[in-house]
Every structure is written in structure tokens, then in C-alpha cells.
Amino acid sequence: MSSQEIYTPSVAAADRDLIFVVIERHRELSAHYDAAASVSAKLEDGAEFAAADEVTDQTNLALTEHANVLIRSKPATIAGVIALTRYVAGLREWELPDDDAWHRAFLEGLADAIDEIGMAQRRRHIGN
Fold it and tell me: Which range marks the domain in which residue 38 is found?
């Protein structure tokens, strides 16, 4: 199963946790970059290649920037934690940040999110 097919949130889930919006945007940017790279790969050196290569570079930059947003985003729900974890686990290397230490930021963010979700649940439980 590709990262593009892993999880499609319901509207209600996206309303409760913006991580689904972040995931969907990354999915879109990945598709744009993949399409642009496919066009560039079919062309020979020349004006058409240069133009296509420029588009590929721009879509790669947008994807790389959003990959950094993706791995630093904190889900607000357990469903969001699960979706983000599964989505990132299925990404190809070119869909991830260039930073070799992205794993640390990603895992720390997930741990913080899980802790915050747990604390919120405990507060609601105590308040009932």
C-alpha cells in the first residue's frame, strides 16, 4: 500500500484534528512533484527540459518545505497520531525532509502529542 492510499479522513476527523489537512497537503505536493519529475525524465537536454526541470525544482522545494511542516506537526487526537504515524511510515525517501535528524523531531512531536492528548482525557475524566 502506498503512502497515497493509507488513510482518507472523514470530514468530521479533519474538523477535530488539522493533522489530516497537513497529511492531505503533503499527499498533493508529492503527487505534483512525482508528475513533474516524470515529465523531466522523458525529455532530452534543451529548452523544454530546462523548463520542465525548473518546474520539477519548484515542486520539489514545495514538497521539501511541507515535509518539514508534516514531521513537526502535532496531532490533536489519537486518530490523528495513528494516521500521521502510518502515513510517514509509508513515505518514500524523496517525500521526507532532507535533514537526516528528522526522525528525532518527528518522534518528539508524537510523544508530546500523545502526552497532551492523555492529559486532556484525564482532565475530562476527572471533571465528570
Answer: 15-127
Q: With cut-offs at 50, 70 and 90, classify the pLDDT of residue 41.
A: confident
Q: What's the number of domains the chain is made of?
A: 1
CA diameter of the chain: 69
Tell me whether residue 4 is in a domain: no
pLDDT confidence band for 50 (50 / 70 / 90): confident
d(CA 12, CA 20): 10
Instruction: Please report whether residue 9 resides in a domain.
Output: no
Q: What is the pTM of this model?
A: 0.81
Cα atoms in the 13 Å half-sphere on the side-chain side of 19: 25
